[in-house]
Amino acid sequence: MIDHLKIAVSDFARSKAFYVAALAPIGYQLLMEVPGKLTGGHDAAGFGVPPKPDFWIGAGGPNVPPIHVAFRVSSRALVDAFYAAAMSAGATDNGPPGLRLHYHPNYYGAFVRDPDGHNIEAVCHDAESA
């Protein structure tokens, strides 16, 4: 089981603001910030559903190639809300909300690129009417 992951971002303040807005609809909050003096030189911010962060961003050169992170959500409406919030926060479209039947019949996801080009997805695997 994965406990947490961290991606590198080129503009920490911009990316932190992006993720605060983009992840809010799915219940993720900025839960912790750790200064670079405690992390080996790079400021870090942890997001998650309280009480524990499981998705982190850290200042530095962005990962090359960009990373793909998928957040599992409980409804298609949350996928739609994530996509709208991320686009409003400055994301680039990488696949609007919809079924991805090539994965399985109930795979409903949306994909955006964050400010550093990371492919960020919200996905619902449950069957429900569209």
UniProtKB/TrEMBL annotation:
<keyword id="KW-0560">Oxidoreductase</keyword>
<protein>
    <submittedName>
        <fullName>Glyoxalase/bleomycin resistance protein/dioxygenase</fullName>
    </submittedName>
</protein>
<dbReference type="GO" id="GO:0051213">
    <property type="term" value="F:dioxygenase activity"/>
</dbReference>
<dbReference type="InterPro" id="IPR029068">
    <property type="entry name" value="Glyas_Bleomycin-R_OHBP_Dase"/>
</dbReference>
<dbReference type="InterPro" id="IPR037523">
    <property type="entry name" value="VOC_core"/>
</dbReference>
<keyword id="KW-0223">Dioxygenase</keyword>
<feature type="domain" description="VOC">
    <location>
        <begin position="1"/>
        <end position="125"/>
    </location>
</feature>
<dbReference type="Pfam" id="PF00903">
    <property type="entry name" value="Glyoxalase"/>
</dbReference>
<dbReference type="InterPro" id="IPR004360">
    <property type="entry name" value="Glyas_Fos-R_dOase_dom"/>
</dbReference>
